[in-house]
Amino acid sequence: MTPAKNSPIPGAERPRRRRILSLVSKREAARVSRLLRAEVVGGVIVMIAALLGFLAANSPIADSYFALRDTKIGPASLGLNINVGHWASDGLLAIFFFMVGLELKREFVSGALSKFSTAIVPVAAAFGGVAVPALLYVSFTAGTPAAHGWAIPTATDIAFAVAVLGLIAPRIPPALRMFLLTLAVVDDLIAITIIAVFYTENIQLLPLVLSVIPLALYWFISRKYAARLARSTWGPWLILLPLGMVAWALFHASGIHATIAGVVLAFLVPVSGRDGTQLAETFEHRFRPLSTGIAVPVFAFFAAGVAVGGASRFPLDPIALGIMVGLVIGKPVGISLITWLLTRFTRAELDPAVRWRELIGVAALAGVGFTVSLLVTELSFSDAGDADTARLAVMVGSVIAVAVSAALLVRKARPRAVAAQETE
C-alpha cells in the first residue's frame, strides 16, 4: 500500500526554522539590560538639554544664546579656532561616536551581530530603515540642491528611542528591546559610513597619513597593556586620551569629519579575552558618563536652538516634508517590510513573545532621529534657512514618530479573566 500523496514520509524531518528576535544568552541579556538602563538615563538628559536649547533660542536671552554658540575658541595656528557649536558637534560628539564604535565592535565580536542567524534580521531591517526614508526624502527634493540632505531622515537616535520605549512600554518583551538596540547600533554604523563617504570633501592626505602614528601607538598600548590599563585609575586618561586627541585633531585637519576618529579609536580597543573585556568595560564605565552627561546634551542644547519664525520655512518646504515623511513613514515601513519579507520567504520566524503590532511600534520608534540627524543636517546645508527648516523637521518628525509608536505600543490594562481566557 502506497502512502497518501500528502502524508508525511516516515523518518522525514521538516526544515528547521530559525527563531529571530531572541536573546543570545543570559550574559548577553544582562549586558544589554545594563546598557539600556544607561541609555534611558542619557535619553532623558538629552531631552531636557534639547528643550532648554529650543526655549533659549525663542526667549529674551536668544541673542546671548546665539552669541555663545557663535563664539570662536581654540588655537588658530592648528586650524582649531572654531565656534562653540562646532566644538560641540565635531569635538564632544566624537566621545559619543567612540561609545557607539565600542558597542558596535562588542556586538560584532560577541553580541547579536556575531552570528549570522541573529544578525541577519536587524542588519537587513536597518538597511531597509535607511533606504526607504532616503528615497522618500529624494522624492520631495529631487532636482534641487536640497537633495544633498537625503541622509538626514535615515538615522535613529538610540538614547532618545530607548528612553521613550522605557516610558511608553516598560513591559515590552526583552527580545524587542534588544532588536531596537541592535537595529540602532547598525543604523549608527550606516550613518557613520554615509558621513565618511558622502559628506567628506577635499581630503588632505598628509594629516590623514600622520594620524596613523597616534592610532598605531593607541592600538599597540591598548593591546599590550590591556590588563594594566583596566586596573589603572589614570592610565586611560594620561596615556590613551592624549593619543586619541592627537588623532582627532589630525582627522579634523584632513577634512574627514572629526567624529569618525572616535569610531576608529573604538575599533582599536580589544573587546575579547579576559584582558580585552576588562579594558572595554573600563572604558564604558569611565567614558559613558562623559558621553551621556556632557557631550550629547551639550550638542543637543546648541543643535536644537532654532528660532521659530526666523529663517526657517517649516513646515511646507520640501526639505521639511521629506524629513518628516521619511522619519514617520519611511522608517517603520522600511524596517517592518524587510522583517516581514525575511519571515515570509526564509526559514526565519519571530520569537513567540513578539507580536507584529509591537514590532511595528518599535520600528516606528526608530523614526526618532535626533542626534545623528541633526549632525547630518549641519553637514548638508550651509544656508541658514535650509538648516533651520531641517532642524525643526527633525524635531517635529521625531515627536510624531513617538506618538505613532505610543499608539501601537501603549495598551490599556485588561481584566485578568479576559487575559486568562486568551492564554488558555
UniProtKB/TrEMBL annotation:
Gene (name only): nhaA
Function of the molecule: Na(+)/H(+) antiporter that extrudes sodium in exchange for external protons.
Record HAMAP family: NhaA (MF_01844)
Catalytic activity reported: Na(+)(in) + 2 H(+)(out) = Na(+)(out) + 2 H(+)(in)
InterPro entries named in the record: Na/H_antiporter_dom_sf, NhaA
Pfam family of the protein (one): Na_H_antiport_1
Topology of the protein relative to the lipid bilayer: Multi-pass membrane protein
Lineage of the species this protein comes from: Bacteria, Bacillati, Actinomycetota, Actinomycetes, Micrococcales
Entry's family note: Belongs to the NhaA Na(+)/H(+) (TC 2.A.33) antiporter family.
Localization annotation: Cell inner membrane; Cell membrane
Name the UniProt record assigns to this protein: Na(+)/H(+) antiporter NhaA
Entry's transmembrane regions: 35-57, 84-104, 116-138, 150-168, 180-199, 205-221, 233-250, 256-273, 294-313, 319-342, 354-377, 389-410
Key words of the record: Antiport, Cell membrane, Ion transport, Membrane, Sodium, Sodium transport, Transmembrane, Transmembrane helix, Transport
Gene3D superfamilies xref list: Na+/H+ antiporter like domain
Main localisation: membrane
